[in-house]
Every structure is written in C-alpha cells, then in structure tokens.
Specification:
Length: 371
C-alpha cells in the first residue's frame, strides 16, 4: 500500500528518532511519548555518562599533558592549580549531545538549533584551548578572533530561529502581561547578542573550582521548566506566556545541560581534578542563551543568570575604569578574584555564589505568577 502524505513524515520521524518512537511500536513503552519522562531519562543518562566516562577521560588528558595554564598575576593560591588537566568541557559536550540525540524527538527543529549552536561554540572553545594548551600559545585565539567566530555562529542561529517563525521576534517583559517590544529584523542581531553575551559571561565565571557549573545547573534547570511551559499550549495560555511550538523538547536538552554539569562537578569540585576550559564554558553559555531566545525569556536569563552578568559587568567596569582614570574598581576582575584577594577562601566564594544563584532561580520562577 502506498504511503499517504500523512504517513510519510511520520515514518521519516520514526526512522530519524531513537527512543521517542518506541511508544508507537510497543505499547509498554507508552511513557516515551511524554516529555517529562524523556527529560528524566536524558538527565539520568547524562549524569551516568559523566560519572562512567569521567575517570578515563581525565586519565587521557593527563597522558596528553593537557594541563591548565595559570596567570602569574592572579591569586597566589592558584599557582598550585598549574598542570591540572583542562579541556574537560569535551566530557560535558559528550554528556549533552548523546543523551539529547537518544531521548529527544529529533524532528523538533528547536532541539537541532540548540544542539548545533552549543556544539559549534564548543568547537570555538576547543580551538582556543588547543592553541593555549597544545601549541603553548598563552593567548590562544585573540579576543577579536573569538568574537568574530562567536558572532558568525550566533547570527546564523538567530537567523534560523527568525526564519522558522515559531518564535515571535519580540522582546517580552516578564513582570507585565501585555508589555512587549516588536523587534522585527532587529531580532536577529539582538538574539545573537544574547547568545554571544551568555557564552562569554559563563566563560568569565569559570575561574574557580566548580564556580561556573553551579549557576549553570540552577539556570539550566530553571529554563527547563520555562521551556516546558512555553511548549505546552494550556500551560502557556494559563501563565500568559508566548506559546512556542516544539519548545517543550528543549526541556530534554536543558536537562542534559544541567545533568552534565552535575556529573562534571563530581570531578571539578574543590580541589578540582579537571577544568572545563573554553570548550566547556563557551558551549554552556551558548546553550543557555539559545534556550532563552527560543522561549522568549531573554530578560529572565539576565535575572536567573545574575552571577554570570555580575562577572561580566565586573570585567567591563574594571577595564573602563582603568582606561579612563588609571584606577581599578576591584582588586582583580572578574569579581570572584576580588573576593579571593579580600581574604575569602576559594570554597567560600564558590558556595556563596551558588547560594545567590539558587535565590535568583527562585525569583525567576516566581515571575510566572506575577504576570
């Protein structure tokens, strides 16, 4: 019997996806049609992968002598970190990509946009790390080169999001029901700015053992909830937030982002056995940025990821102040180094920043009812 126009895309969808179509083929796999179940499955898979592969991956980095380069002008307590394996972000990317491909509906366009953007930012980070660690070039990619590549990827991702028309090109204000700003074609550079800015902000935060992964876990977990709500017609209508077709599948992707960081934290907690490097931090920031753009929560990303914003602003303020007045605002930037030089022990800085991140996540979720 010939396929009908309806059957063809369904057959293709089942051929492309991995676990998702099992609910059609086998009745006892009915739970696989639920995003919530597949999110839990992907999250658990991601953590287990990190825990299982992590030790072998760290030994590989040690054999290749891919050790961290430590700044001489930084806190003296960091000199002991020299030689600690870096580029551990490869493990994070592996624990994001594989479980997402395994558990998500691979016909969902948002999943591919998020995955490819995250992976490509990871590639940019890898090139930077490769030059620093393997080619022994302490500068790696120049700031200009890095920004150019980031903007190219960010603009491409933003254009695809804009062209698909599932995500409205507007800026939503979370504390108000009716307020929104129609960006039109300005949406493309604006969305790229959010993605690139988030990527660099997480990169700047990654300066202490486990500091960046803590806020990434809370932010990704928060956006997991937001994406699920945005992709559910009834919930989106009830909460008066934009309904984004297919955004619910991003919950699976964001679950792997949070879980990969949780698994990586097992090895990255103080004193760290491995650092993520730019291959991890640039990718994680891009993942959060693209999720915020697709679900129309760009402003909430700045709120929920307030730690990342604070770190980025501290660097900009330090540079601007020194250029204009010759004076520094902080003892050292990013701001986590300022607190270290004030006498805070590294674990104290880390845990206190984590606490702030959790509070910001709770405030972010509360905005769903304030509308």
């Amino acid at each position: 019997m010939l396929d009908t126009p309806f059957q063809k895309p369904v057959a293709f969808r089942h051929a492309l996806s991995l676990l998702y179509p099992l609910h059609v083929k086998y009745g006892f796999f009915n739970v696989f049609k639920y995003i919530t179940f597949r999110t839990f499955g992907a999250t658990i898979t991601s953590v287990v992968l990190c825990m299982m592969v992590g030790p072998a991956y760290i030994r590989f980095l040690q054999r290749k002598q891919l050790g961290q380069v430590v700044r001489d002008d930084g806190p003296k307590t960091h000199l002991s970190k020299k030689g600690t394996p870096t580029m551990g972000g490869g493990l994070i990317l592996f624990a994001i990509v594989l479980p997402t491909l395994l558990w998500a509906d691979l016909m969902d366009k948002n999943v591919w946009i998020a995955l490819l953007t995250t992976f490509l930012f990871g590639v940019i980070g890898y090139v930077d790390d490769y030059r620093k660690v393997i080619q022994k070039d302490p500068k790696g990619l120049s700031a200009k080169q890095k920004l150019v590549f980031q903007w190219i990827v960010g603009l491409l991702a933003s254009y695809v999001i804009f062209a698909l028309r599932d995500t409205p090109p507007v800026l939503k204000f979370p504390f108000f029901k009716e307020w929104s700003l129609d960006l039109g074609y300005v949406f493309i550079p604006f969305a790229a700015f959010v993605i690139v800015g988030a990527s660099n902000a997480v990169n700047l935060t990654d300066g202490l053992d486990g500091l960046a992964v803590g806020p990434t876990i809370t932010t990704a977990s928060t956006f997991l909830i937001l994406s699920y709500c945005a992709g559910h017609v009834k919930i989106a209508e009830y909460l008066q937030i934009p309904y984004i077709p297919g955004a619910g599948e991003l919950a699976i992707f964001l679950g792997t982002v949070a879980a990969s960081c949780l698994g990586f934290l097992w090895f990255n907690t103080y004193p760290a056995q491995v650092f993520m490097g730019d291959v991890g931090s640039l990718a994680l920031g891009a993942a959060l940025g693209v999720a915020a753009v697709i679900t129309k929560n760009e402003i909430l990303l700045a709120l929920c990821g307030g730690i990342f914003v604070m770190e980025a602003v501290s660097v900009m303020a330090q540079v601007a102040s020194f250029k204009m007045t010759g004076r520094r605002v902080f003892k050292m930037a990013p701001i986590h180094h300022h607190f270290e030089l004030k006498g805070w022990a590294e674990p104290k800085v880390i845990v206190r920043f984590w606490i702030i991140s959790v509070l910001l996540a709770l405030v972010t979720l509360s905005t769903l009812k304030l509308r």
